[in-house]
Amino acid sequence: MSKKKKSDKPEHSGVPDIESARGISGVESARDWFRARDIEEIECLVPDQGGVARGKIMPVSKFLASPVMNLPLSIFYQCITGEYPAYDGLVDAVEADTDMFMQPDWSTLTSVPWAMDPTAQVIHDAMTRDGRPVEQAPRQVLRRIRELYRKKGWQPVVAPEIEFYLVEPNTDPDYPLKPPIGRSGRPELGRQGYSISAVNEFDALFEDIYKYSEHQGLEIDTLIHEDGVAQMEINLRHGDPLELADQVFLFKRTIREASLQHKIYATFMAKPMSGEPGSALHIHQSIVDAESGQNIFSDPETGGPTPLFFSFLAGQQKYLPAIMCMLAPYVNSYRRLTRDSMAPINVQWGYDNRTAGLRVPPSGPDARRVENRVPSSDANPYLAIAASLAAGYLGMTEELEATAPIESDAKNRDFELPQSLLEAVTEMDESEAIRQVMGSSFVTAYAAIKRQEYETFMKVISPWEREHLLLNV
């Protein structure tokens, strides 16, 4: 179902009355764009390895005087905890603290509709002093994969689906999360999958999310209530991988900000609550011929699947374990991937089989696609999309053969995917094929970050340990 409406701005929302478009041609157009909207401040954003928005906020006058800003290279080595791994073997410590140059991607310029004063935001690309892209930057990793497809005359198309939970504000991490109070004055207790009334409990919040999205040029396809308590899913329109990764990056920010205005937390943790389903970032993928626009997964004469379609599937099957730490990037991510759940633990594929890691949805030949159901919602969208497309690319270029489609329930099969973060990092680190397509320097840096995050996690004693080990061992 779609909840999208063209209603007027809610009185409690901070959305400006002026209609906003996303993207312009260059700095000269920017001057007119800022002037038309009376914008005096701009947020200069850079997605880091965790998908966190880093950067600077500055007056528009200063930004226009020199739109290329500087940031230390170390932001691409920062863990989600704020710590850094040892630079040995990665980059010289002095170099890590030197500046790189951030160039605005003018196609991403848009408003910040929740800001108190008229404010703009623009996503930047990271460049070295001599003008080369920084290989560790997630946007560049995705660009690298997209370029591999371009050289083959192919153009990937993706459509992400983002699941998330709404929860009560939680300022003490020792306490479990709880569902928020809706407009009825009561929290949601039972599961309400696809319930309209359960979504309507948070109508005011979703009105703001839709309005904020419109003003940023972000296209929501559908909104649904997922299986978990106060778990929602937003589906995006299909399009270019980099553009859709940008949209997911901005959507996450938008949903969090809108929720905070309603005194609710929106969380993209993979498994925020025990006993509830995890949250996924499903990625629908198809490939078209760059010249004709024909879906290369379908034969133009018969409409049936092509050898490239099965090779793409086979590449995903073979390389899912090696890219797992980009699809499930945190310790918590692996709590989602359990037996007897709708989160896959396998590399099987099937026609309209949601228990398989790879699902082929019902469609006509033009829309034939592969849905990767493995990624969790905590994944960096740039890296998850890049890694998934990289696996499919390798399958096609290596002319791999897929297994037969699975028709049975795959929820309780043996694990075919890494069961822990460290296992997944090792799989990636040792895959020469993944290093080659995604960049060896990126793989080395990303592996170091993930290992550092795991070491930090291991310093924390969990309630389970106190419950079962304190007096029993």
Automatic annotation (TrEMBL):
UniProt-annotated stretches for the region Disordered: 1-21
UniProt cofactor(s): Mg(2+)
Keywords of the record: ATP-binding, Ligase, Magnesium, Nucleotide-binding
Molecular-function annotations in GO: ATP binding; glutamine synthetase activity
Ligase as UniProt keyword: yes
UniProt-listed Gene3D superfamilies: Glutamine synthetase, N-terminal domain, Glutamine synthetase/guanido kinase, catalytic domain
GO biological process, one term: glutamine biosynthetic process
PROSITE patterns attached to this UniProt entry: GLNA_ATP, GS_CATALYTIC
Pfam families: Gln-synt_C
Residue stretches making up the GS catalytic domain: 138-473
Signal peptide positions (record): none
Magnesium in keyword set: yes
SUPFAM superfamilies with a match to the protein in the record: Glutamine synthetase, N-terminal domain (SSF54368), Glutamine synthetase/guanido kinase (SSF55931)
Family recorded in the similarity comment: Belongs to the glutamine synthetase family.
Protein name: Glutamine synthetase
Source species of the chain: Labrys okinawensis
